[in-house]
Design goal:
Distance between the termini: 46 Å
Order of helices and strands: EEEEHHEEH
Number of strands: 6
Radius of gyration: 17 Å
Helix content: 10-25%
Shape: globular
Strand order of the largest sheet: 2-3-5-6
Structural class: alpha+beta
Largest sheet: 4 strands, antiparallel
């Protein structure tokens, strides 16, 4: 049995010529209906080509952004995510600001059960910064999950081979 596909008119980026925006724009994000609302499951995006600008020096910062979420009613369309993340290219924001802004925008748009964003920034000046932020629906098991994952997200030593 095939599942219903999202209406073509609701997804303006998918299947159309890519138009890149060079200034931060959360309105680039698009969603479609979750076809498996009855079940908890993770969706994870690995975005290894994220760039933003240092708000003080204007120098570029490069990162891999990891986004993982448990959907509720809405799913995140991947091409719109790519365009949204690209819109940070000329955005002047500290690493922590970028990660928290991405989390805030995605929570507002998706209203997920659970969502986390982790930025693994390449070093500048000999220091790398890896901010992590998450969200779970308040007063539910997802909030408990968010609290647990925040306290335990980085307990395993990292094998650093790419920076």
């Amino acid at each position: 049995m095939s599942k219903k596909q999202p209406p073509k008119e609701s997804l303006t980026h998918l299947g159309n010529t890519t138009q890149y925006t060079f200034a931060y724009d959360k309105n680039l994000l698009e969603t479609f209906e979750n076809q498996h609302k009855e079940r908890d499951y993770f969706v994870k995006f690995n975005c290894p080509e994220f760039t933003s600008l240092c708000p003080i020096t204007g120098q570029p910062d490069f990162a891999t952004i990891y986004i993982a979420y448990i959907p509720n009613e809405k799913m995140l369309e991947s091409k719109s995510l790519k365009l949204y993340l690209f819109s940070f290219r000329n955005h002047g924001g500290f690493h922590e600001d970028c990660v928290n802004r991405i989390l805030k925008d995605l929570v507002e748009l998706l209203q997920p059960r659970y969502l986390e964003v982790w930025g693994k920034f390449l070093p500048r000046g000999g220091i790398s910064i890896d901010p992590y932020a998450n969200y779970g629906i308040p007063k539910t098991k997802y909030q408990e999950m968010a609290e647990y994952r925040l306290l335990n997200h980085d307990l395993l030593p990292e094998k650093v081979d790419n920076r």
